[in-house]
């Protein structure tokens, strides 16, 4: 994948199964967020080659909204403000689009509010937030909690959480992580993108991948995250310079 | 779902086209094209008007002949041939209908189709309607109910005959016939409109509304509305309008006058949806309107709320003259232009009395190759101690071929005045659209959501039934504006 003629993602080979939690770690500029938005369907024009198959479908052939309706959810690193549009209205529109896609009747206002109350409790979100405009004037922590709340409402099959931990204090981090854990099941999968091992103390990954310079250069179990935290990304950089690009191939 | 306005909006968006573009084939009584004193006499005769009306019309006409079309607006108006317009056209009715059964079923069906049933049983209680097609009022509902409270709500033509003293006292007192080119034209040839009179101490229990429909071809519509609210009274008035789709342009030049006495409050809401022309800019209504209210008494209040989505060209500045001490003027506007539409709209707030306050909130939305201008005047006269004004003018652009312009004028002659003006221009962000997409919402629907959010402050000022209508309209008018 190229942006402005610069190759951003070069060699990614990743398989995520139901019930799994994958963590993607990597230094700044390694392509983590690009990977997340690519999965969600942005900047498709920039894809040079490759394929992404999601539940038997070629993702490059479907629009972002259809991906979403098929169960792909992106927790944004920087959630977007939409002034004047209430969270209730926004989520009700979104949820009913999902239901329509599945051939279900839309939820009535009262049923919708019931579901919302339930999910709010589940992810411990302040009831005031849903009365406000989408992300408008939310603090950093509120925005991130709001992403998890939306995830709870939409019940995705594949959730991609892009640096959901950034800008959170310890309490907010715990709430967000608890939310993610509660939503986890044998029927869905989660990709957690993060800089720090910190989040992975709360959300225990089954696999950890290290993204560096547009490639997945190392994969392993949850202990890889701990090792990274201890040794820093320089350790990976050094290792690559010894072995060239053999590492990621050895993972297959 | 069927009961949820938001969902209905989404359903209707998929249709997109101008919904009210149909034409009713009905027997029309019209006069030949052209404008001269004989035509004016003919109109007056057809309406069986008293002498004072004819004199008013002729004075206005003679004055109009000395005037030139205004050119200061940020509009490109093709030359209008005033001799090529029919100034009177009316669905033919033998007598003034006594009951619903006397109205041509075809006519009834037309208003049903527009969502304005003339049958009182079918209406939501709480809204009385005066239905105007081309040059005449077809039916005014709930007249009797309102009359019990002393409220007069009828067509302008009837008011001229039944309440000539009231009409002659107030007509032209806020917008004199010499006020401007279109007001003079209107005063000369106006056909019908509504008249509302709310007596002292009465709070009108239902919304009063007029629905204007242009039907006949080559016809201009020149309606005139007069609202008088006596001491301590209240009324909320709504106005809606549509026209068939035609390749030629049609002229609509209306005049609205409001008089609010001491402690009276008048809310005037408009959802303007005249045919805007097609995607290439062909056809559409020229909407040149003079609307003005005077807060005559102390502590009176007039507020204008408008949602403007239609018309090929809009030239319209609903204004308030704040003469009474402590009087309040408000203007809330959403103006949408798409394709080749042009709008030059705004308000004038004239502070004369002491402690007068005015609020202006204008939200322009431009798409396609359209041009959207806000033009507003805040004038504080010498003796208007402690006048306050707050103006907020926001422009939202969709795409890069449209224009948004703001022309604020401030004339302040009193040092104690506090006048604030805020203006913003923004574009709908790709980020916002992608965020909605990612939650499963299509781009078209996302734009509808975002635009409605942007305009919410104004839409919230509309009565409930109208607010839903306005939301739908906003979304539909922007259909196809983002490729």
Record the SSE blueprint.
The complex is a heterodimer of chains A (252) and B (483).
Chain A: E1 2-3, E2 6-7, E3 21-25, H1 32-40, E4 53-54, E5 57-58, H2 64-69, E6 72-75, E7 82-86, H3 87-101, H4 109-123, E8 133-134, H5 140-154, E9 158-162, H6 170-183, E10 189-194, E11 207-212, E12 215-220, H7 222-231, H8 233-243, H9 246-250
Parallel strand pairs in A: 3-10, 3-11, 6-9, 9-10
Antiparallel strand pairs in A: 1-2, 4-5, 7-8, 11-12
Chain B: H1 5-13, E1 28-30, H2 37-46, H3 51-65, E2 89-91, H4 105-113, E3 127-133, E4 136-140, H5 143-147, E5 152-155, H6 156-162, H7 164-170, H8 181-189, E6 194-198, E7 207-213, E8 224-229, E9 234-242, E10 249-252, E11 255-260, E12 265-272, E13 284-295, E14 301-308, E15 313-316, E16 319-322, E17 328-337, E18 342-351, E19 357-366, E20 371-380, E21 388-397, E22 403-412, E23 418-427, H9 430-438, H10 443-454, H11 456-459, H12 464-477
Parallel strand pairs in B: 3-7, 6-8, 7-9, 8-11, 9-12, 10-13, 11-13, 12-14, 13-15, 13-16, 14-17, 15-18, 16-18, 17-19, 18-20, 19-21, 20-22, 21-23
Antiparallel strand pairs in B: 1-2, 3-4, 5-6
Helix pairs in contact in B: 1-12, 2-3, 3-8, 6-7, 9-10, 10-12
């Amino acid at each position: 994948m190229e942006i402005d003629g610069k190759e951003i993602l070069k060699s990614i080979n990743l398989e995520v199964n139901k019930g799994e939690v994958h963590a993607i770690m990597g230094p700044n500029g390694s392509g983590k967020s690009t990977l997340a938005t690519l999965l969600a369907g942005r900047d498709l024009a920039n894809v040079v080659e490759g394929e992404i198959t999601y539940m038997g479908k070629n993702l490059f052939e479907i629009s972002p909204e259809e991906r979403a309706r098929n169960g792909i959810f992106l927790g944004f690193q920087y959630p977007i403000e939409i002034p004047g549009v209430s969270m209730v209205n926004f989520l009700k529109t979104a949820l009913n689009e999902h239901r329509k896609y599945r051939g279900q009747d839309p939820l009535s206002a009262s049923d919708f509010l019931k579901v919302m109350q339930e999910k709010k409790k589940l992810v411990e979100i302040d009831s005031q937030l849903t009365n406000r405009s989408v992300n408008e004037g939310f603090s950093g922590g509120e925005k991130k909690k709001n992403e998890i709340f939306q995830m709870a409402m939409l019940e995705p099959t594949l959730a991609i959480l892009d640096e959901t931990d950034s800008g959170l204090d310890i309490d907010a981090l715990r709430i967000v992580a608890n939310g993610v854990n509660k939503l986890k099941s044998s029927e869905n999968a989660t990709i957690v993108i993060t800089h720090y091992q910190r989040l992975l103390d709360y959300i225990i990954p089954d696999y950890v991948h290290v993204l560096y310079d547009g490639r997945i250069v190392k994969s392993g179990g949850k202990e890889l995250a701990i090792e990274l935290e201890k040794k820093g990304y320089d350790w990976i950089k050094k290792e690559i310079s010894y072995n060239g690009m053999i590492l990621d191939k050895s993972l297959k | 779902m069927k009961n949820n306005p938001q969902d209905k909006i989404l359903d209707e968006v998929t249709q997109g086209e101008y919904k009210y573009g149909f034409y009713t084939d009905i027997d029309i009584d019209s006069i030949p094209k052209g404008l001269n004193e004989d035509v004016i006499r003919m109109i007056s005769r057809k309406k069986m008007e008293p002498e004072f009306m004819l004199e008013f019309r002729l004075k206005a006409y003679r004055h109009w002949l000395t005037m030139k079309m205004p050119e200061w607006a940020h509009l490109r108006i093709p030359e209008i041939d005033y001799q090529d317009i029919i100034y009177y056209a009316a669905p033919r009715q033998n007598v003034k209908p006594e009951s619903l059964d006397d109205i041509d079923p075809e006519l009834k069906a037309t208003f049903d189709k527009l969502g304005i049933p003339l049958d009182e049983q079918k209406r939501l209680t709480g809204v009385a309607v005066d239905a105007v097609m081309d040059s005449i009022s077809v039916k005014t509902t709930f007249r009797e109910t309102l009359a019990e409270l002393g409220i007069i709500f009828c067509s302008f033509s009837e008011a001229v005959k039944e309440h000539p003293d009231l009409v002659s006292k107030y007509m032209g007192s806020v917008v004199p016939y010499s006020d401007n080119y279109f007001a003079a034209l209107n005063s000369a040839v106006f056909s019908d409109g509504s008249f509302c009179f709310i007596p002292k101490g009465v709070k009108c229990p239902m919304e009063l509304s007029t629905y204007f429909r242009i039907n006949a071809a080559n016809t201009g519509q020149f309606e005139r509305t007069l609202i008088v609210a006596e001491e301590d009274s209240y009324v909320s008035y709504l106005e809606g309008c549509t026209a068939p789709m035609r390749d030629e342009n049609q002229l609509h030049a209306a005049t609205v006058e409001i008089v609010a006495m001491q402690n009276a409050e008048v809310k005037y809401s408009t959802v303007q949806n005249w045919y805007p022309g097609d995607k290439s800019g062909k056809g559409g209504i020229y909407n040149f309107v003079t609307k003005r209210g005077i807060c005559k008494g102390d502590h009176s209040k007039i507020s204008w709320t408008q949602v403007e989505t239609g018309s090929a060209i809009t030239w319209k500045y609903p204004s308030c003259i704040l003469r009474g001490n402590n009087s309040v003027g408000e203007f809330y506007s959403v103006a949408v232009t798409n394709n080749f539409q042009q709008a030059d709209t705004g308000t004038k707030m004239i502070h004369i009395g002491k402690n007068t306050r005015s609020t202006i909130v204008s939200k322009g939305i431009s798409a396609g190759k359209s041009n959207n201008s806000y033009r507003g005047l805040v004038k504080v006269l010498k003796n208007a101690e402690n006048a306050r004004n707050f103006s907020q003018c926001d422009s939202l652009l969709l795409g890069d071929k449209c224009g948004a312009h703001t022309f604020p004028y401030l004339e302040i002659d009193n040092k104690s005045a506090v006048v604030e003006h805020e203006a913003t221009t923004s574009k709908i962000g790709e980020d916002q659209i992608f965020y909605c997409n990612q939650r499963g919402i299509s781009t078209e629907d996302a734009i509808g959501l975002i635009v409605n959010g942007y305009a919410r402050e104004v839409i919230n000022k509309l009565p409930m039934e109208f607010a839903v209508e306005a939301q739908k309209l906003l979304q539909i008018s922007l259909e196809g504006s983002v490729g």
